[in-house]
Each structure stands twice: as structure tokens, then as C-alpha cells.
Amino acid sequence: MIAVYTAFVPALAAAEPQSQARAAALLAPYAAQPYLGHVLAQMAWFRAHDEVAWGYLVPHVTSVQITGDQAVVRDCQDASNAWLVSTVTGQVIPGTAGSARTYLVAVLVHSSDGRWRLTLLAHVGGSCSPVPSPS
Q: Which residues lie below 8 Å from residue 66, measured CB to CB, with a gap of 6+?
């Protein structure tokens, strides 16, 4: 389930420049409805406003809680190398740069096909600390 969570971001980056149908197919292994629809709608909104996500995100999973077929993943993601770019000017859109300590909570469900899929990914107010790397 952590592998699905961490693989979602690269899948999202690969899906963004694709058609809506192709993006849905690329993201379906990682996200379930209605969250998948939300992500696709957000990508369409960015396209309609000549914006594209740029850069990269680094997950730092701080905890996982599994209850039956549901898991809650807490992440102190480093989004300091991610932002939105105007597809018209190629310039970074002011105010869109991420933070080195972005606190996220993800909910995943264990689907009937045996895969874990995201059903929610939300920013949480407040600060977080990434888990230190083992020495």
C-alpha cells in the first residue's frame, strides 16, 4: 500500500500531458472513484487555465494505520521543488511553489481486485517533520 501511495505522484506526472481518457487509464491502478474523478477534473482545470504542474515531490511517509480494508497514510512530503508553470509564458506562477514540509493525509482502500487505491489525499494544516533516515 505504501508502494501505491508513493507511485501515485509519478503516475500523476505521466498522466498530466495525456488526454482525459489516457490519464484516467494511467491513474486507475492508483486511485478509485470519486477521488480519481476529482484528480482528472483538477488536471482539466489546469489545462483550461494554461497551467501545468512542474518539478517533483518527495514523499516522507511518517505513519501508516490499517483498519480492515482501509489504510491511512500520513506524509511529510517535500514539495519544495514543485510549482505550477504557465504553458503560455513558461514562467512559474507566483505563489505556487510547494513547501519542504507539506503535511498530507491519504486514505486508501483495498479493492476487490486486491489492489490498494487512493480514495482521498488532503493537505492538513500545521507543520510536520519527516522521519529521519536510518544512520
A: 1
